[in-house]
Amino acid sequence: MGGPVRRVSRRSLLKAGGAGAAFGAFGTRWRGLVDDPPDDRPRGTSGDGDASTADPEIDLANVQGNVLAGFNKDHQRLLFFRLGDTERARTWLATIVDETATSEEVLAFNDLFSRARARRGQETGTPQASWLNVALTHPGLAALGVPDAELSMFPVAFRQGMAARAQLIGDVDESAPAHWVGPFASADVHGLLLIAADAPSALDELASAHTQRMAAHGVRVVFDDTGRVRADQPGHEHFGFKDGVSQPGIRGLTRRQNPADDQQGLPGQDLLWPGEFVLGYPTQIPTPDPKSGESANGNPGPISRSGPAWTADGSYLVFRRLRQDVAGFRDFLAGAAADQGVSVERLGAKLIGRYPSGAPLERTADAAKSFDPSKADPSRKDPTILDARKISNFEFADDDADGKLVPRAAHIRKAYPRNENTPTGGEADTQTHRIMRRGIPYGESFREGSPPGSAAGADADRGLLFLGYQASLERQFEFVTSQWFNKVDAHQAVQAARRQPGAPDDAALHLHNRRRLPVPAVDHRAPAACAPCGATISGSVATRARAARSRAAAAASRTRARRRLVGALRLAQGLGELVTPHLRAAFEAAPAGDLDELGPRLGRGCARPVPLAYGGRLLAERGAGLLRHVGDRLLALGGADRLADVLLCCLPLLGGDHGTPPSCAA
Prior knowledge:
This protein is of the alpha+beta class. The protein has 22 helices and 10 strands. Among the domains are: 18-37 and 59-320, no CATH class; 579-666, no CATH class.
């Protein structure tokens, strides 16, 4: 399975139309904002006051509905607003308190809906409902007259806003806030009114009523976005993968359904303390319990607190508007699959960790050890694998430590490494970085052959409206993005250190697997869990690159080759999964003179033969891994476009010509 190893980047597939913001989704009583009395109920205890390992009592009537229950509606409107006069704004907020859906209400409805659908065998005739939730930014709280002393109590990430944290979370270059759509790079967004309904007519009616009420109170809508489930592929995001496959379970809420493990809801769904997602409740402990011997820790940790006391029962909301280049994604898969001699379906599954159906590449707990789900989607022969009790019932460290089934570069493994070790700890630590993910597609589905400028065309604006709830922006969203997604080889380095005595060198084993089936490593600088949640490529908000427009004017064949190469080297992070420690050491230990000679020669476009020390045998044999480091050096010399030209003339060498180094004219 030879051929060059191709890479795809989030910036090339998640394009212009991006935005991001951080909000506070506080309890529905809006303590401190509409003068409700404080709730003195002991937080995070069971009904009898026992604060041990008993499941906590969650005040579901005071937690907004989309946080713990999830709206699960086919149609949603996101009305981002700016407040005006403080008193009028507070009056408006007070009018919607009783209309704000609670988790108690939404959970009851979702249960009723599920029962009705199961009995009828279809959704026709099932009950319907419309929901509303609201969230506020830090500038929004200031506009409501929250005292400075209380405003200063909020964490830095919330006070600064997402645009100010761009460097930390990887929103740079074409993804920088300067390229975001709407007003999200400024302080003009004071809050979000989230409206959800089963039918477009009901959604529009409710949105119209609320926009009129907002206007009457001096509240201005500054950005209006609409999300809807794809009619042609319900439950799937625009790249075609099943959405919302895996969510954390919540103690005190999620029903235990695994007889073999009372620490899980559905099989494979670990139960977490609610303080990971809602303020005022116990949290996870990031270290194993020495008494149980388990890698996770089921004991309650400290009560989650953030900001003033009235934030109890609230949550921090991350919003990301992710535009998806579906045509580019399909082109990449087709080209890379042909290069590697594998099917498009298999390559896509290797990138994500799941097939489009949602079936995992990993063996589920009930599967035989000889079963290899990575050859083809196993749900075709056994549809029961898509059952909620099977679809996420697997771990990584037990029988796939080297990534033979689910590569370490796969999205679901980067986003949630389950029970394998990471640079910051093991499973207990991982459980402190989970996010309650919500999201819905926006835009029309892409259809091959649709003309440019049409709603279904390749250039149309489509993607995902991602919302993620957590108790800590820094420990959850920002950590997953900066420490797991943006750091290459993070999990691989730890796995190498954990290999058993006498076992093959993990680095060599990992490279061997990639040489048999070189799986492109997607650059995932994204919020945890995105489109689809736990199942597909995610990325931080990206914008249309000016360089991409100039390349589009070039000849078609040259443009296609250049895009692939620039994507490979411009975001060298994606190559990290292929780079092993001993190769890196070999490159760094090479004589500086050879590198000094190599740079100018390649910078001129391979005008003379490349020195064998780097451009010949070593690059031919180890090219996939070494290219990252060569690329990093050369990008500084000549920029991405020049480097793309260089590599175009060096491709024969990467294709396996071990004889002489390449030579071509500038």
